Amino acid sequence: MLSFLKKLSAITPAQTAAEPVAAVADKVDPFSLGLYDAKLSGWYNQATHELYTGFAVSADDTLLDVGCGDGGNVHFCGMRGAKIILADIDAAKVEATRQRLSDTPAQDIECHVTDCNPLPIADATATRVVSTEVIEHVDDPAQFLAELVRVGKPGALYLLSVPHPSSEDLQKDIAAPEYFQKPNHIRIISEDQFKAMVSEAGLEIISHSQYGFYWSMWMMLFWEAKVDLSNPDHPMLEHWANTWQAVLDSPRGAQIKQALDAVVAKSQVIIARKPAASL
Fold first, then answer.
1. Model confidence pLDDT, tens digit, residues 149-175
2. Which residues form a coiled coil (predicted)?
3. Residue 279 in domain
4. In this structure, what CATH number is given to the domain that contains residue 88?
């Protein structure tokens, strides 16, 4: 099952300003709304050049995205002029992302089709390492994280995310069975487990946050609607998107979003640093 963060990031972040999503004929596009919601949570900050709060990217960086998916994250980083390295097990996605980057000022684009065991990348290559919604899929998280650490330069920043257990636990008896089967989500990772994984890999955790109540509820309704993700047209999903847009547009919308994100979140995000001394 395609992760919803990857799906919403398929929209080029620059295409959607950090303003409410306009409804067309009283119908809100769920993925554009999801991107807007993600921006409110700290993603794709054009003004500060932060891919996510605390993770700024510049033309001085060599950024590796492992599990690049549809390429929204690296497109944002390519627009900052960084050197980009792509790695994904899906050759079609790597090629599609390479093509997406052709309109950016990225200094260079290096592509790898790989299962990341090991990564075909030299030690101490990247100053920025991104891997979103991948660890829940891999057979050996410790080995996977060890590879990410190996290819980062001393002092490199890491942006890592996995599904939050609050959302995953809600879906256990509702999601399609394959959602929790290989090659999809083969584990649910608690907050403590996520922090332990990252720390035991040798990284210093800078921040640990969560967001995505909107997507958590959307997914619950998605399973009940029994529609295809490529065309999720159903009254329940339409009503939910309209409702969430109305919530965000309300005077205390940001406060309500923050409170709900703290209770049921789609994703948890860790920003970490590789120690300056070699590991």
1. 999 999 999 999 999 999 999 999 999
2. none
3. no
4. 3.40.50.150
Which two structure tokens, joined as six digits, stand for 224? 């009940």
**CA 246 remoteness from chain centre:** 25
Secondary element (H or E) of residue 270: strand 267-273
Q: Which residue in the block uniquely carries the two structure tokens 């955790």?
A: 205
DSSP notation for 28-70: --HHHHHHHHHHHTTEEETTTTEEETTEE--TT-EEEEET-TT
CA 52/CA 61 separation, integer angstroms: 15
The domain tally of the chain equals 1
Q: Which amino acid would we find at residue 222?
A: F
* Total residues found in the chain within this entry: 279
The answer to the question of residue 9 being in a domain is yes
The secondary structure element, H or E, covering residue 87 is strand 83-88
Alpha carbon of residue 41 to chain centroid: 12
Provide the b/e sequence for 122-152 (b: ≥16 CB within 10 Å): eeebbbbbbbbbbbbbbeebeebbebbbbbb
Supply the range of the domain harboring residue 250.
Answer: 4-273
What are the angstrom distances between the C-alpha of 92 and each of 18, 70, 268?
A: 30, 10, 27
In a domain, 278, yes or no: no
Q: What confidence tens digit (pLDDT) does each residue in 215-254 have? A: 999 999 999 999 998 889 999 999 999 999 999 999 999 9
Tell me the one-letter amino acid at 90: D
